[in-house]
Amino acid sequence: MKRHIVAGLLKLCAAFSAAALSAAPAAAQPKTQLLVYTAIETDAMKKMYKTAFEKSNPNIDIRWVRDSTGVITAKLLSEKANPQADVVLGVAASSMALLAQEGMLLPYEPKGFKDLNPMFSDQRRPPTWVGMDVWGAVICFNTVEAKKLGLPKPESWKDLVKPIYKGKITMPHPASSGTGYLDVTAWLQMWGEQQAWRYMDALHENIAQYVHSGSKPCKQAGSGEFPIGISFEFRAHQVLRSGAPIELIFPKEGLGWDIEASGIIKQSKNMEAAKKLVDWMSSKEANEISTNWWAIVAYPGLAKKMEGIPDNYESLLVKPNDFDWAAKNRDRILAEWSKRYNAKAEAK
């Protein structure tokens, strides 16, 4: 009897051990490490998008490389022969168009793409990049400092060239910042090249510093370091909410704008996971997260009213806005801009 019991126990242990061994490889299977290059603002990047995506996709771990749009674009182009990233996310459409022209992005229509506003994505089908949200130019004006200095409130871009503003304005450097580049390309498209360069020559006389971030000019205005900062509405809204004494000015001539977009690097080594991320970024869930910061998102009907942002904000955006033109002419425009104005660039 004892022999039968012992034999049975041994068989049971053997079966249990075999089951445990067969299950072990699955349990120990490592997560897919997805390398994502991004220009998304840090306060949005990890807290919301990463957490929400990984909750829905527990077998994928996002590893971020974050910098400003110009730096990320240069990094991607330098790695063209040996791409490192799997996905580009939250980078300006003008840069995504350039990457597409270089043959670096995978044509891919994500799930749910048909629910998005087609105006805010690549017009090719399948698209090489898909829009997330729109960001547009704004002037941050410190009302307290302006009163001390006797500065009138500017209403337009052309007001900023008045001599009273000399040394009182900061602006993003267009080679480093997508916001700086959208300002320059909007002026060139609105007024034509000859008039736009004349305008930028005059504006340069009043610029104290070209900084390497689209956010920094508004932060500087908010702190009173400089009374006027050319920035973008996401950061302006955040600075205003923080209690800084600023007013947001949306110049009447029209606003330069760009689109934060996502796309897949054609040579990604983790293609299935990359597609899942771009699918998710095109979802209603991801767009609802974006409405915490952006007044215009790609999914229609979700945007919320934001403090300081006018109801007619979308109608103020410069149209048409040719991202392919901005991409094709990027090197030429930046070379000309740097030749004229780089002497006032912030030290890196």
From TrEMBL:
<dbReference type="GO" id="GO:0030976">
    <property type="term" value="F:thiamine pyrophosphate binding"/>
</dbReference>
<dbReference type="GO" id="GO:0015888">
    <property type="term" value="P:thiamine transport"/>
</dbReference>
<protein>
    <submittedName>
        <fullName>Phosphonate ABC transporter substrate-binding protein</fullName>
    </submittedName>
</protein>
<dbReference type="GO" id="GO:0030288">
    <property type="term" value="C:outer membrane-bounded periplasmic space"/>
</dbReference>
<dbReference type="InterPro" id="IPR017663">
    <property type="entry name" value="ABC_2-AEP-bd"/>
</dbReference>
<feature type="signal peptide">
    <location>
        <begin position="1"/>
        <end position="28"/>
    </location>
</feature>
<dbReference type="GO" id="GO:0030975">
    <property type="term" value="F:thiamine binding"/>
</dbReference>
<dbReference type="InterPro" id="IPR026045">
    <property type="entry name" value="Ferric-bd"/>
</dbReference>
<dbReference type="Pfam" id="PF13343">
    <property type="entry name" value="SBP_bac_6"/>
</dbReference>
<keyword id="KW-0732">Signal</keyword>
